[in-house]
Task: structure prediction
Amino acid sequence: MLYHDVLIVGGGLAGLRAAVGLCDKYDVGLLSKVYPIRSHSIAAQGGINAALANNPNAKDDTWEKHAFDTVKGSDYLAD
Result:
């Protein structure tokens, strides 16, 4: 069994930052269900997005295409 002073759940940006901030004073364990390079903070492809029907430059922009792009961007793990 492993023992730590602090256990951080989540290997995304916030979890990694918390671990870095605490590791000088505490024995820190970091728990993630995926490899840290697959956490959402690393895998994210571009902030907040939406399908906008009122954008004249996006004639074919639909919620269906936005949903497909979101799932595709997650390597089909967010469907």
The mean pLDDT is 83. The radius of gyration is 18 Å. Strands lie at 6-9, 28-31. The chain is about 30% helix and 10% strand.
